[in-house]
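Hi all, long-time lurker, first post. I run a small reading group and we've been trying to get comfortable going from sequence to structure in the token notation. Rather than ask abstract questions, I figured I'd post a concrete chain and ask someone more experienced to write out its structure so we can walk through it together at our next meeting. Sequence below, copied exactly:
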Amino acid sequence: MKQLLVPLLFWALLFSAMAVTPYHPASLGEAGEDANNFAEGLGDMGAAFPLAFGGRILFETPCTCSGGLRLEVGSPRPMDLWYQPGVSVLFSFYNLLPPDYVLGTYTPGGACTVWVGPVCVPVPTLGTITIAGTSLTPLSPSI
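-- Answer (accepted) --
Happy to help. Here is the structure in token form:
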């Protein structure tokens, strides 16, 4: 019973935090600030209040220079985030493939860089995933 209760409490708290956390779209440039300025504005409280995200993984881009993956997450909280191995903690079915659903928290900042020709080019992301859990979809390679 305890093995089932702890994960259920964790996800219930995460869902409730996602419901009350304000939505910060990737287009913060409309207000004259970008994601890095937003992260600096959080100050010391940035780690205390991670932001929540969740939805279906629509597309993933390998970050060939910086390592990790850039995930494009669909609704209900659509955004582009950076999964960085060693920093991001992945739970549940450990599968970050596009048909799966993902739910977790992120902190603003981070840079996914991709090799284009002779240089590495940064690909914009809203933040770095801190923790994430994925769903098990039918006919998924993780089965």
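A couple of things your group might point at:
The domain at 2-21+48-134 is CATH 2.40.50 (OB fold (Dihydrolipoamide Acetyltransferase, E2P)).
The helical segments are 2-20, 35-42.
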